[in-house]
Amino acid sequence: MKDETAQQGLLISPIKNGTVIDHITGGEALNVLKIIGITGTTHECLSVATNVKSRIMGKKDIVKIENRELREEEVDRIALIAPNASINIIRDYKVFEKKGVTIPALLVGIVRCPNPGCISNTNEPIQSRFEVVPNGLHCLYCDWVITRDITGHII
Amino acid sequence: MTHIISIRDLKREEIDFLLSEAGRIQERCFDEHALNGKILALLFFEPSTRTRMSFEAAMARLGGTSLSVGSVEASSMAKGETLADTIRVVSGYADAIVLRHPKEGAARLASEFASVPVINAGDGAGQHPSQTLLDLYTIRQSMPLERIRIGLLGDLRYGRTAHSLAYALSLYHATIFSITPTGLELPDALVRELAAHGTEVICCDNVEDVVRDLDVLYVTRIQRERFPDSASYFKVASSYRITPELLTGVKDHLIVLHPLPRVDEIDPRVDSLPYARYFEQSWNGIPVRMAMLQRVMK
What we know:
The structure holds 2 protein chains of 2 kinds.
Chain A: H1 2-11, E1 18-25, H2 29-35, E2 46-54, E3 58-66, H3 72-81, E4 86-91, E5 94-100, E6 106-108, E7 129-133, E8 136-139, E9 145-146
Antiparallel strand pairs in A: 1-3, 1-4, 2-3, 4-5, 6-7, 7-8, 8-9
Chain B: H1 12-26, E1 39-44, H2 50-61, E2 65-68, H3 83-91, E3 96-101, H4 106-113, E4 118-123, H5 129-142, E5 149-153, H6 160-170, E6 175-179, H7 188-196, E7 200-204, H8 207-210, E8 216-219, H9 230-238, E9 255-257, H10 278-283, H11 285-297
Parallel strand pairs in B: 1-2, 1-3, 3-4, 5-6, 5-8, 6-7, 8-9
Helix pairs in contact in B: 1-5, 1-11, 2-11, 3-4, 5-6, 5-11
């Protein structure tokens, strides 16, 4: 445990205000950034560590975002690809709030239906709606079931 | 308010009730003025003959009136109006809406914006619950629905009628023989769902191999538009032609169904055999749709 902490300390320094997303599934850090809308053209100050040794997970990723606190909807999105992630809201170098992520039973406006014939892919005034089922995500409009590459379908 | 969007929304008891009601209606035990003064809006954004006319006829037989949107080109949809707005407006004109639309999930969307009941009359390759109910009703006229052995023949990948019927029959513990050309099999997700209901799906290439084991043979049109060229379509389509010779030695009580229109899947010589029930199946659309209209509007 001590070694792990020491190693992380070398990789990422503490932040004054913002969010630390810890225990991201190894290799998913860049996808996490993508689904919360952080790209090369946005201005957040970021620290990203990938494939860090973890006693519990074997390998994990860590993301620190300065001066930004994640919204509930963004946390829901992270849960889809990193179900073990923990979200730490940092204020004045201290952990102000710490929470896990849970995949909600219903995803509204988060995932785009891959079925080109689905009414949710038109200009109708609706948001996509998926229920989480054991083998994936079920579109509540056209009944399509997404069983793989969920990241690729996140809006 | 009751909508009928998908056969999946109906429990087995509700299906049984609608089929029993259709039976009573067919025996002329119904009130011809049940829907007097009621107005049904028919919003058909795709071509249809049987479904549209049978809903109109069903409404007329119950004393009600139908309004029709006419062709899509002459409607506000052509001006770019959303379906949601169309539904909100038409909700003010009618007591129920029957919708056919090319997009899957359109009826579900309509039910969210309508202030009157919505009946799905087919949305893309999605759901068509009134067809499924009349299929079940036609089978039930010949035999109990419980534990039948049914062959689904044709394009089962894209055929919405086969999907809905397979799901509904899984509620009655059917054994399903999936008889398709390569690439047109039932979708994996549906097969898994059927298996979860305890329904066995047996895949086979050749109808001759299984036809003598069947209680029901449900033939669907192989959809020409799915094939890259005419030659490959005709090769597959002709391999699944139902003829009197093919039906030699089948069970006496076998019935052959088809949601129609047929192209060349069924030899016209089959029409006069006792197995052929596809025209009765089509006529059954009237009592079944009368039962549905009464359920949502009365």
